[in-house]
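Page 37, continued from 36.
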């Protein structure tokens, strides 16, 4: 049954061999590290992307309403911090996914080629643009078009980079598509890339809205000295509104994300986790709606509950991502294990064959005397030395006595007599040595001088 499945899948799907190295940590622990570290990383990525979008929107709106320009400046101050945290926190999930899914991650990287390599220069340029935008706020105060263009370019790059990551992560889940992909843009058109991308964008706006609500509501934040017209309540309400609208859009996109996922990774465990996470977000959205419709005294009433429920929702969604990945790759990973085992078996057989061939080659290159020395060491060296008396006479005496008479020497070795009273009787080797060994042994003895 499995062999037929293996043949069927292998004919349609590339099945590379894996690197047969043990994991540095238990697999379950690496999975936990991957999920947790990825969620921390994506939090700051969301704040970076959502903050950049919100800053750009506020600064454009600030061309007519000065108060929004101030808001843009305040949010811009957080972008560079969040992007630094995103980079640092991205190391752990990147290493974890490399270790857990080496074959899949690197195959996807190779298939998307130069675009994957372009991530580093793109990120570098985007980061430099955000710093340039941040530190030229006053310098370019009267050149808003240039200043906004700097941020717009950074935002465009920030919006494109997730396409690269999502395309790669999506492609690694579908080995059956590897033979069909013709570069990055081909992989980008695979189902699920665009729905996941838009889900990510609105997740960034949702998280940024909660961040804005908290950031503007800090007790030690000198709000009145920064904003001449806006009130805390107004900005908190705007933060809640952004989160609520973005969350509603996520609810609409979510089913599309689920439906565009190939069925091979779907399972009751995934459905349960996803719908539990979505169910927890509903009361959080209701609390935000009440806060928006309430007054200044009740805007913060349920904020901690909203934050807790949204955090748990994100944890469930992140766990669902890993569950789908494990489900989707389960059968293919089994095929890779079989392929790896077969390769290792062939490799061991080839090494053994090579060693045997080398040994035979080395043996073939030995002279008869060299071969005879091995026979001597195995059968004669316990009683005879080349030049000294041991139990029996030295080999030089034999060589002198049977010079030019190898057959006589061989007959003596097979059936020796007792010639000297001061030496013990030598045992015969007629049964132990064949003719080839006798020829080799006599050739060796007769070379001793």
């Amino acid at each position: 049954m499995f062999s037929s499945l293996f043949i069927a899948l292998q004919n349609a799907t590339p099945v590379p061999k894996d690197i047969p190295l043990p994991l540095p940590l238990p697999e379950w622990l690496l999975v936990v590290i991957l999920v947790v570290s990825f969620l921390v990383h994506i939090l700051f990525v969301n704040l970076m992307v959502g903050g950049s979008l919100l800053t750009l929107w506020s600064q454009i709106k600030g061309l007519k309403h000065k108060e929004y320009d101030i808001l843009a400046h305040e949010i811009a101050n957080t972008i560079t911090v969040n992007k630094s945290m995103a980079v640092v926190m991205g190391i752990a999930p990147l290493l974890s996914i490399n270790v857990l899914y080496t074959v899949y991650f690197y195959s996807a990287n190779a298939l998307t080629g130069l675009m994957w390599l372009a991530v580093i220069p793109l990120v570098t340029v985007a980061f430099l643009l955000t710093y340039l935008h941040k530190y030229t706020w006053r310098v370019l105060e009267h050149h808003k078009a240039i200043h906004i263009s700097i941020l717009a370019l950074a935002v465009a790059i920030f919006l494109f980079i997730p396409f690269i990551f999502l395309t790669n992560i999506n492609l690694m889940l579908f080995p059956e598509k590897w033979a069909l992909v013709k570069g990055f843009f081909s992989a980008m058109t695979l189902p699920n890339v665009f729905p996941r991308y838009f889900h990510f964008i609105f997740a960034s706006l949702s998280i940024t809205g909660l961040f804005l609500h908290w950031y503007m509501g800090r007790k030690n934040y000198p709000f009145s000295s920064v904003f001449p017209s806006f009130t805390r309540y107004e900005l908190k309400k705007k933060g809640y509104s952004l989160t609520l609208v973005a969350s509603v859009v996520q609810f609409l996109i979510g089913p599309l994300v689920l439906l565009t996922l190939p069925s091979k990774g779907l399972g009751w465990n995934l459905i349960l986790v996803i719908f539990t996470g979505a169910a927890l977000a509903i009361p959080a959205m209701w609390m935000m709606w009440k806060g928006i419709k309430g007054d200044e005294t009740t805007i913060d009433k349920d904020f901690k509950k909203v934050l807790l429920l949204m955090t748990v929702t994100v944890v469930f969604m992140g766990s669902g991502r890993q569950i789908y990945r494990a489900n989707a790759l389960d059968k293919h990973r089994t095929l890779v294990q079989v392929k790896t085992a077969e390769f290792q078996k062939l490799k061991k057989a080839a090494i053994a064959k090579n060693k045997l061939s080398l040994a035979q080659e080395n043996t073939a290159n030995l002279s008869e005397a060299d071969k005879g020395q091995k026979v001597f060491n195995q059968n004669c060296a316990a009683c005879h030395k080349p030049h000294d008396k041991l139990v029996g006479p030295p080999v030089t005496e034999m060589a002198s006595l049977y010079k030019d008479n190898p057959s006589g020497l061989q007959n003596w070795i097979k059936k020796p007599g007792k010639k000297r009273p001061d030496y013990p009787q030598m045992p015969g080797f007629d049964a132990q040595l064949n003719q080839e060994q006798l020829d080799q042994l006599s050739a060796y003895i007769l070379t001793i001088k």
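The chain has 18 helices and no strands. Flag for discussion at group meeting. Residues 1-10 have pLDDT under 50 and may be disordered.
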